[in-house]
Input
Amino acid sequence: MPEFPKSTADMTMSTTEATRAVVRDFLAARLAGDTDRLAGLFADEVDWLLADNPTVPWIRPRSTAAECAAQSEELTAHTVPEDARASVDAFIVDGTDAVLTGHLSGTVRATGKSFEGPFALRLTVEGGRITRHHLYENSLSIAEACSPTGTEA
Output
C-alpha cells in the first residue's frame, strides 16, 4: 500500500525533495551539456528571466523548453569550455522553489576576454519540470568580455 504524507510538513518535505532532485538533475545535465535531457526537464512554457543584452549572443529572451535547453549549447559555442567555471555556495529549496548562489567565470571565444562574477539562480519546479528560470549575474562583466573594445556594454 502506498504511503501518503500525514501532515502539511510531510507534504512540503516531499515537494521540497522532489524539487531538489529535479534541480540536481538539471545541474548534472548542464554540466554534461545534455540538451535533450535539459529539454525534458523544462516545462513546455518557461518563465525565463536573464537580463537581455544585445552584446552577448547567448543571452536572449526564451520561453519554450527547446529554447531554454539550447542556451547551454549557445553558451558553449561562444565561450571556451576549458575556461568555464562555476561554483555553488548555497543551494536552498523550499517547496517548489530553489535558489542557488555562487560564482561563475569564463572566456569569450571571439574576443579572448574573460568574465567573472557572482550569480543567483531561482528555479521553480512544478509537476517535475522547471517552470521558472531566473538568473541574476554580472552582466556588465560578460558584456565587456563580448565587446571587441571591452567598453561597449
Observations:
- The longest helix spans residues 8-32.
- The mean pLDDT is 90.
